[in-house]
Amino acid sequence: MVATTDRTYRRALHPIHAVLLAGTLPLFLGALLSDYAYSTSYHIQWSTFASWLIAGGLVFTGLALLCAVIGLIRAHRRGVLSWVYLLLLLVIWALGFINALVHARDAWAMMPTGLILSVIVCVLTFAAIVTGFARPTAGGKA
Fold this sequence. Notes:
Blueprint: H1 15-41, H2 44-74, H3 80-103, H4 113-133
Helix pairs in contact: 1-2, 1-4, 2-3, 3-4
């Protein structure tokens, strides 16, 4: 007697989507570390570094958001996890944009709001990465 199993294989993230998603964390984490360095040393270059890193993080997040929307449109089954992932990316982009506007102010005027927003964006980015890569590849529903 032969036992057979019926498995449904789901596609993982597209490699470009995975690179864009994974690239957001170092950029937003670098901005967080730059904000912390500015709050302890008061050297203006740290706020400039943070502004550029946030801009790069917004570009990567926007492209990952575009990939997520395309993936959601093309998906046969739209699970709750896909919607949560899309919502997380949208919230990250919106808070990152607000953070970029806060960083556009005078260097000292951005403290402590810029640091707090950087912490929130960094934590949400980590949650989005975990959610984005948490897709079952064999069996199961997501």
